[in-house]
Design brief:
By secondary structure, the chain is mostly helical. Helices cover about 70% and strands about 0% of the residues.
Length: about 160
């Protein structure tokens, strides 16, 4: 079955052209504007509007556009989340490799204190997320990356490569 915003069975080409103009006007839709654009009388455009149920057809069209926009937003959000997870995993891998290569003698007392603080905070957050409602305790990937950058800004990462 045809979609309501497509040309309807029996609808003339000129009536459908008028409907298409009306449909595509969005929030600025007026019968008067369609008549002016096509050089047609207001009475003719009103007859087409009533006969071909423009009001319901544009409602369906607008709903479809809204549905498509929501679907795209969800898809984009999922893609962003997957991208952030990949970045976080890469950062974790590099950080663990650097940490494993770090000799205790190279660490200052301040470094040890910061690593201990960061490790306990990560453990607490992990346990909190595990036990509580995850929606209330979700950690933003952006905030995690920013925090990780701040915590590791003073470390010398050297030439860590991601080829493992």
């Amino acid at each position: 079955m045809d979609k309501p915003w497509e040309r309807q069975k029996g609808e003339s080409e000129k009536a459908f052209e008028a409907f298409t103009i009306y449909r595509n006007m969005g929030q600025e839709r007026t019968v008067t504007a369609v008549g002016k654009k096509l050089g047609k009388s207001r009475n003719l455009i009103d007859r087409w509007k009533d006969r071909w149920n423009w009001k319901e057809r544009v409602r369906s069209y607008d709903n479809e556009l809204e549905k498509q926009a929501k679907e795209k937003a969800i898809k984009d959000y999922k893609s962003m989340t997957e991208r952030h997870i990949k970045i976080a995993m890469q950062l974790q891998k590099k950080a663990l490799k650097a940490f494993n290569n770090l000799e205790i003698e190279e660490m200052s007392p301040k470094d040890i204190k910061e690593f201990l603080k960061m490790a306990t905070e990560l453990e607490r957050l992990s346990r909190t997320m595990e036990n509580d409602n995850q929606q209330e305790n979700t950690i933003s990937n952006d905030n995690f990356i920013d925090a990780l950058k701040q915590e590791t800004a003073n470390l010398d990462w050297g030439d860590i490569d991601d080829t493992e």
